[in-house]
Specification:
alpha/beta, 2 domains, 3-stranded antiparallel β-sheet, 14 helices, 13 strands, 37% helix, globular
Length: 358
């Protein structure tokens, strides 16, 4: 397939290549990675969750205020790198301060908001003052998408500018399935959901917006297959996490490089969602039921088993530890393709491999 003229237009924003870099928290997809992807022609994405934790604005008591400032700082830094490229912010619905994440991203100059980890039914309300910001929900099924479309149209007279279909079969981090058992449900595969959603948009909604395929995207063959299903773009996260431009510590990247198939496991997250992660000492203890947690950073999740019952662990702290390279105590979220990573790469080389002329 010739990608030389296949751009990705989402709302008023257009990237050179049909690629969104996935949002990976806490800090994994920060301003340097997002800026580099945007500079090379993709949509660079900053994950807003937990940016306060490694911010100079955070004093240990002002998490929510510090995170708003950290989001704006990250966008400013990414914009300096991006050279006019398209920048998105990924905001998780599952956060207690979800509305503040969205508004700070808009105020900071984000071109689009990408939103999952729950249904973003209020997203148009939080972005009402920023009509040029494109809105992109993440779903794992046609049913979830239809709920969003109906509610947005009824309440806000607004429809999404694009929609990301992320399959839990291969995606990283929190997954769009109700239970671990449903993660492997073939009905949630891209091969099933993308054509269903494309047909739904054409036949029932009557709207022409891009469907973006996510979860398990690794190489050009995966991109071409996604296009045969009807998608007009792809989202890739895991492969970008271990790039030279990735914002995570070198130890985090090494964990990706070293990961073998048997190291990739599914867990029940404290947020009440299944998740995919690397089985390090911390996760091994968690699966055995003997894990000990550091204190809660903040009341950051709308649903948190650790906050409510002191079971499981503080996921924010565990993700910060992973970002900083603490192999013993961190939560190293990953996609199934982590086992294909055997070295660090440059963002430009990945994008050229995906979309360059053969």
């Amino acid at each position: 397939m010739d990608f030389s003229n296949v751009h990705l237009k989402i709302g008023k924003h257009e990237s050179l290549f049909p690629l969104i870099q996935g949002g990976m928290g806490v800090g994994i997809s920060g301003p340097v990675l997002a800026g580099a992807v945007a500079k090379e022609g993709g949509v660079g994405t900053i994950a807003s969750v937990g940016l306060a934790c490694n911010s100079s604005h955070y004093n240990g008591r002002n998490y929510f205020e510090a995170n708003e400032l950290a989001v704006k700082d990250a966008l400013k830094k990414a914009r300096e790198i991006a050279g006019g490229g398209v920048l998105a912010v990924n905001c998780m619905v599952a956060l207690t301060d979800y509305d503040r994440h969205v508004r700070s991203a808009c105020e900071g100059g984000a071109d689009m908001i990408i939103s999952g980890a729950g249904l973003p039914v209020q997203l148009p309300e939080f972005t009402a003052d920023f009509p040029d910001v494109a809105l992109v929900p993440i779903v794992s099924s046609k049913k979830a998408a239809s709920i969003i479309f109906r509610r947005w149209e009824k309440r806000y007279k607004r429809l999404p500018d694009a929609i990301v279909v992320e399959t839990p079969l291969y995606a990283g981090g929190h997954l769009g399935a109700a239970t671990i058992e449903k993660v492997t449900d073939s009905k949630l595969s891209l091969d099933v959901v993308v054509p269903e959603l494309v047909s739904y948009l054409e036949d029932e909604v009557g709207i022409d917006i891009p469907v973006i395929a996510a979860g398990g995207i690794w190489d050009r063959e995966d991109v071409e297959h996604a296009f045969t299903l009807g998608s007009r773009g792809v989202q890739m996260g895991t492969r970008f996490a271990s790039t030279y431009e990735g914002d995570a510590s070198q130890r985090f990247k090494q964990a990706y490089i070293d990961a073998e198939e048997e190291d990739v496991v599914l867990i029940n997250s404290p947020a009440g969602l299944p998740g995919r992660a690397i089985k390090n000492p911390f996760i091994a203890k968690y699966l055995e039921g003997t894990v000990e947690s550091k204190p809660c950073i903040a009341n950051c999740l709308a649903h948190c088993k650790y906050r409510d019952t002191r079971e499981t662990f503080c996921i924010a702290q565990a993700l910060v530890d992973a970002f900083n390279g603490d192999w013993e105590h961190g939560l190293f979220f990953c996609g199934s393709n982590v086992t294909k990573i055997d070295r660090m790469e440059h963002v430009s080389d990945i994008i050229d491999e995906l979309f360059g002329q053969k």
